[in-house]
Amino acid sequence: MALVHRLVGMAARMVWRITRPRTIGVRAVLLGPDGRVALVRHSYIDVWYLPGGGVKKGESVTHALHRELAEEVAVTDAAVERVLGVYHNRREGKDDHVIVYVARAANDALRRADVLEVAEAGWFAPDALPAGTSPATLRRIEEFRLGATGGGCW
Length: 154
Fold this sequence. Notes:
This protein is an alpha/beta fold and about 150 residues long. It has helices spanning about 1-20, 60-75, 135-145, and strands at about 20-30, 35-40, 50, 50-55, 80-90, 95-105, 120-125, 150-154. A five-stranded mixed β-sheet has the order 4-1-6-5-8, sandwiched between helices. Strands 3-2-7 form a three-stranded antiparallel β-sheet, with no helix packed on it. The protein is globular and about 45 Å long.
């Protein structure tokens, strides 16, 4: 099934290069009670990311954030603390705006809710992230650790 996700992703990137769509995405610096950060590794790409995804047409960004947290890591009780920043991503031929929230889970229960999409999910100390964490994820977590409000390029 991971091969199917990878092929669909490749096809989507080809379409995006031609159509150049504007998209809106959400991600969360999701903190556990002990301050660790939740990260996911999708089945179709071999890097670790903050949980999140695209905002659907007609959906609010906060609803999308809660939906994505439920779909990816089975967290349904996250309390949003603040917006970390709004970023612009032009990779993969898209014109993508990503809103990153800081949110806190009520407990440390974390699991792959969609086992076809999410290969791994886990809690990590902000100063001990796994090898293969995406550069943008590293930047967002560092901004969080510094207490900065982010923005600009993804």
